Amino acid sequence: MGAHDEVGRTVISTSIDRLALGVHDGAAFVGRFFKEVARPPYHLREIIHQCYEVGYRTLPLITLTGLITGIVFTKQSRPSLAAFGATSWLPSLITIALIRSLAPLITALICAGKVGSSIGAELGSMKVTEQVEAMEVSAINPFKYLVVTRTLATTLMVPALTLYCGVVGLFGSFLNVRGNEAASLASFLKSGFSTIGFLDLGSSVVKAAVYGFSVGIIACYHGLRATSGTQGVGRAATASVVMSMFVIFVEEVLIVQVNVWLRGYGL
Amino acid sequence: MSVLPEPTAAPEREPVISIRGLQKSFGALSVLRDVDLEVRTEENLVVLGRSGSGKSVLIKIMVGLLQADAGEVVILGQSLVGLQRRPLDALRRRIGFSFQSSALYDSMSVGENLAFPLRMNMTDLRASEVNDRVRESLDEVGLVDSIGKMPSELSGGQRKRVGIARTLILRPEIMLYDEPTAGLDPVTSAEINELIRKVQTDYNTAAIIITHDLSCARATGDRVAMLLEGRVYRSGTFDEVFDTRDPLVTGFYDYNFIRESTP
């Protein structure tokens, strides 16, 4: 066995150890969230403040993205459907795509970028400047005040923003359809919503809540583990975004599988 | 090693902080090795030592921010060993901790910084009562006019003062100061030293002051304990500790240029 093999073995072993430790720490962090969330005090004022920060302040970005997605997706889909003389299916196609996948995914990714980096940097900065320790010594539970409130806010607000993104996306799609086919809003919505059911809407909301939870808890986890000054804060913000996006895509695959499975049972 | 007895502690005063055989390591690095300390009611103890000698670790263990590897810490009659979150928080409310960096919440104004621990710990207080207490605490440190300012608008000395006011708002019985004069000019340092003494007399607090600044040690301490290589090397009054030819002590003294500047 050469020196290179030895080095390679050591690197792999260290990486596996770090991955295992990371998964263990992450699981313990999530476990602590569920333990703390049910216990008073509930910090309602801070939860409302965080909902405002996560929800209201992300609205302009969601509006713009949702609208553009609706317009562009409709524009791109028309030629394919027109080739089969099926442009009347446009509202159904767009509604299914938006409600089932695009709206939750786009909203979650925007929140991972905007909210996740903001929470990661904020908590990271608080950690390296001893503000988190200052809370501890004042007998304030920082996990409860910082992590539980922010994670609850993202869990509640991402589904709300998803529904809003869906509505705005459909409106964008309608603008394009009206420009080309002169359809009325009523006929567009009737045609679109005839193809989706409770499972589509329900799973979209649940999916968005799962994404929201992931964005919040991952950002808090990385923020509270920040070290090494401003460099650590930057690393925490980046890690929050990258990890949140990765987890969102993994969850998307799993939830789609569960959806397909449920549809198999006629739900 | 020349460890002096602790001659100046008034025998009738009961100890509020008692540390016995305290040990703490970080990996292979042993920071505290068998530290024994005692602080009595209304007494200021200065813990002196070079950077990295474990001074800050010592007070962080005392508020449960770090766990000791061995030894016992008893504060206000309560041992920290195996203390659960709720009783630990109850004890923390009786201890004020002034951070080296001041650790002000930078998203809150000065007034909100002070009101925050009060609102979180005394939920039955009315808004007007909270406001009165905030003004009173800021008045104690001479910064009532800065109530609406953000921490970023304050100077280093003002931030230290606000940090101390924030700890005073919960009416602590013990104060822990981590490097209170670090990074301050001599005039501002003297003001902070004065404030530490004022807190001691006005609030009847006992305190541990962590510093490597001998001017601060002389001005604020009733007793001094010098940490060296994780142990209490000498303790006593300031003059008792530094009245020696021991090079480890005189080196520290000369470094602070006190010998030349005092008559």
Describe the protein.
The complex is a heterodimer of chains A (267) and B (263). Chain A has 267 residues and is mainly alpha-helical. Chain A has one domain (60-264). Chain A has nine helices and no strands. Chain A has helices spanning 3-37, 44-54, 59-83, 90-128, 131-137, 142-181, 185-193, 198-224, 229-264. In chain A, helix 3 runs parallel beside helix 6 (142-181). Chain A is globular and about 65 Å long. With 263 residues, chain B is α/β, with parallel strands linked by helices. Chain B has a domain at 14-94 and 208-263: P-loop containing nucleotide triphosphate hydrolases (Rossmann fold, 3-Layer(aba) Sandwich), CATH 3.40.50.300. Chain B is 37% helix and 24% strand. Chain B is built from ten helices and ten strands. In chain B, the strands form two sheets. A six-stranded mixed β-sheet of chain B has the order 6-7-8-3-9-10, sandwiched between helices. In chain B, helix 6 links the parallel strand 7 (174-178) and strand 8. The radius of gyration of chain B is 18 Å and the shape is globular. The two termini of chain B are 29 Å apart. In chain B, 44% of the residues are buried. The A-B interface holds A 41, 122, 125-126, 129-131, 133-134, 136-141, 145 and B 60, 63-65, 85, 89-90, 92-93, 95, 97, 99-101, 103-107, 116-117, 120-121, 123, 166, 170.
